[in-house]
Amino acid sequence: MNLKWAKKGVVAATTCVLLVQGGIAAYPVPIANAASSSITNQIVYLNANSTIQLQDAQFLTQDSGRVLAYTFLITNKGSSEISLNDYWVRVTSSGGKSFSTKISEQDKSVSTVAPNSSKLITYYSYVDQASSMSDMKFNIVKWDFSAANYERVLGSIQYGKGLSEQTPYNKSVAMLYNDTKVQTSVKQYTLTQDSNNAYLQINLEMQNQGLNAIDLSSMNLFIQTANSEVYPVEASELSSTILQPKETETITMHVTLPKQIVGKSLSLVPSVKEQSSDIKLPIASFVLPTLQDSTLTAANVAKTTYIAGEKVNTFVDSSFVDRNIDSSVVTIQYALRNTGKKAVNYPDFSFSLVTDDGISYPLTYTKTDESQSKLLPNMREVLTITGKTVSDVDLSKAKLIVCSGVTDKSNGYVVGAYQFRKEQASGSAATTYKYGNYEVNLNAIQRTASADTDYLIADVEIKNTSTSTTSVPNLTGYFMINGVKLEVEAQKAALDSNVTLGSAATYNFVVYSEIPYSTNLDNVSFVLTEKSSANSADKTIYNFSGQKVTEISSIKKNEIYSNKISGKKSDAKLLKSMIYEGESDDYFYAEFEVANKELRASSISEMTGYLVDNSGEVIPVSFSTFDQKVAANGNVLLSASAKIDKGIDPSDYEFVFGQSVASAADSAENKGNILVKPVKYSLSSNDVTTVNSTLNKIQLPGYTLNLNRVNAMLNVTGMYTVTGLKLTFDYDLVRDTAYDYIAGNHKLMFEFVDQGTGKTTYSKEFTLGNPANGEIELEEANDQAFEIQFEDQAIQSKVQSYDKYKLNIYDVYEDAKILVASKELKWFTVE
To answer: How far, in Å, CA of 303 to CA of 316, rounded?
Structure first.
């Protein structure tokens, strides 16, 4: 034998020793672990002042074979260091087999033990499948070249019959992980099954007992059976867990197992991977109790699961079926409450409904708050789950299967199976739903438009059926289209100003959701919900199923459009609707008379609307804003206008208008543009108006204007200095006394257009009432002389013939410039 080579091999194999923190104290083990306590009492002396003790030994079967990992504590109480090059461990079986010994990677660099210190060193060996721990004998040898085979056995350590190296369930052990002691125990487990597999969920509690943070990402865990079958455990939380000194974390892990091993003896084995060899060295083994299936969770009963070690109660809160001819839509409220002490990530659940004959239907869900990524402690959250099934599905005979961890490459694991509560009732529009002391009516589901989107609107009315005054319940809801819940969160807008409801009093509100204008609404459901508090999920109350969008009713000119909302009751009449022809664009213009029908002075509801043609193209219409209070039975004149393409056929368009509610959009331009309680007016060719060509009886919003003795001349100062143009006339401006207010900032524009080749043009605007700073008002008057000066010292170079000019008068409103009068006149001639 080559002695020189042998000694070098020993040195290389024995240089990995782990320093135990806290002087020469032995590696701590749980008191309850009788096996480990007995094995550590077996001490072998290396010399008079140094000892070696077996601390732990574990089996783990893997692709490369069955590995036995074992850790020894070497203690030096002497005054000089001892060299590990002189000692080795031989592992043999009771049958005489000898197994080669290797040292873990982390211990290869250590070759000595300093005086008055202790070190841990981990070895491993490949052993046969038949060997048990009591078969293993650990022989401590010293290299002695005077002895036979150059080895002298200093002593042996062996597990006794019936002793186990494993840690009992719910007891802790200090396992060694990357040079650090980690106090560890299995705290909880749950087991569920489906037709193919069993799914085990385990909570492993770990506390860092070292002085430095440790990264748990290199830890692997396995379930191992008594006959050495091994199943990898999915513990994705470990990859992102850094355990600080003295910090305790509970890791939730999952494993899919064959159904046939349920009821058999199993253990959970943590391990550390050797980077160079890919060997996984077991560092502990935890006995699991005999696994029992978590039975089907009964209706009205909560089931407990764990997320990141936190206890989460789950519950089928409510369910109902929207039945159609060919299929049905199932809606389920799945509630979760984090009863732990810290927030956890929302679970990656997936759902399916399994009928009594084993047919499975996938379900989709939407969180109550899509922006929320955490389940907060003691907070109840609700997932709304929906999906299509056969039309005659019987929920009382079906079950909800909840899975997690489902990916393209994995079926995940089953979290639980739930029976359903009794199916909740549902009804159609105009159905009165009795809810406590209230009656809830869905008046209509309507669809209205804006410039680039549509809105789906539910008009809901609540009536107090009790004999006493009560509060207004905080009801709201959401929409389902063709069985799928809208992803866009529904918004609620109150139309009434009531804060309480007297006996028989009603409260009206709308719920709306934005939808693409291209959406087909074959089947719409409105699900009524109630919010009990700001931090609680909405509770499903009732399903108004199988709805059709309510047709918008038609209205004629001077027909009353009543707003019956408490606090803003009013009657509106469309007085006129016309299209003004311009040079490059035309303008739609309408006027409304709105009467306050409250018993006291009150503000009136805002209005909004749009034009829509036969193809569905929408043109928004701007209404004048008005925020003054109007006396009881007082009237307000409102204006509305829109720029349109020139030469359109009015009979192709409808004017849709009604009440306006404030949008929940953040941008200011989108505020107050949602149309509710709409009606429509069909335009016709009679709505095209001609421009007044006489300058008499010019109809303006709330006024009538007459012009007489109109004359245009050059404006001359001194003897010969021409400074521009002067236009003079006498006018009558008479206000219509039927209106308390004329809403909107209407202005008059006088435009002078010379008819010579240059078409020299001048214009000036005047307000009709309530002039702002710097504005000039054209005041109410009777046969009042008026003069307009247009300053232009170069006018003589622009006007050549001084023959004819055209006087145009525009009603300027918002962004619209509407030509209301035009007449051709002669220069220097009074007409």
So the answer is: 9
DSSP state of 738: T
The rounded distance, in Å, linking the Cα atoms of 488 and 683 is 34
Residues near 445 by beta carbon (within 8 Å), at least 6 away in sequence: 429, 456, 457, 458, 459, 524, 526, 547, 548, 549, 550
8-state DSSP, 394: -
Give me the average pLDDT of each 10-residue run along the chain (831 residues). Answer: 34 28 26 46 92 93 93 94 92 90 90 93 92 90 86 89 79 91 90 81 92 93 92 89 93 89 89 89 91 73 85 84 75 86 87 87 73 81 83 84 79 82 57 82 92 91 92 90 81 87 92 90 85 66 81 93 88 89 80 93 90 92 88 92 87 94 58 84 78 93 95 92 96 93 88 94 92 89 96 94 95 79 96 92
> Which residues share a beta bridge with 56?
71
Specify the pLDDT at position 325: 67
Looking up tokens 């090059």, which residue turns up?
85
Classified as helix, coil or strand, 61 is strand
d(CA 378, CA 619): 49
Contact 261, 287 (CB under 8 A): no
Q: List the structure tokens of 651.
A: 């009979």
Structure tokens at 635: 């009237």
Sign of CA dihedral 594, 597, 603, 608: negative
Closest CA to 699 of 811, 597, 606, 600: 811
What does the alpha-carbon distance between residue 250 and residue 271 come to, in Å, rounded to a whole number?
17
pLDDT score at 24: 24
Which DSSP symbol is given to 667?
S
SS3 category, 351: strand
The answer to whether the CB of 81 falls within 8 A of the CB of 115 is yes
Pairwise CA distance, residues 88 & 67, whole Å: 19
Query: Measuring CA to CA, how many Å separate 77 from each of 24, 44, 112?
Result: 8, 14, 13
**Cβ neighbours around 278 below 10 Å, total:** 10
Give the CA distances from residue 307 to residues 73, 186, 340, 818, in Å, rounded to whole numbers and listed in that order: 37, 15, 10, 66
For 500, counting Cβ atoms within 10 Å of its Cβ (0-12 exposed, 13-18 middle, 19+ buried), the class is exposed
What's the start-to-end Cα distance of the chain, in Å?
137
Predicted pLDDT of residue 428: 54
Measured in residues, the chain has a length of: 831
- Whole-angstrom distance, CA of residue 696 vs CA of residue 343: 76
Half-sphere exposure of 751 (CA within 13 A, CB side): 21
Q: Write down the pLDDT at residue 2.
A: 36
CA atoms within 13 A on the CB side of 28: 15
Query: How many Cβ atoms are within 10 Å of 643's Cβ, its own excluded?
Result: 18
β-bridge mates for residue 747, sequence order: 767, 812
3-state SS, residue 272: strand
**pLDDT reported for residue 69:** 95
Q: Which residues pair with 354 in a beta bridge?
A: 360, 399
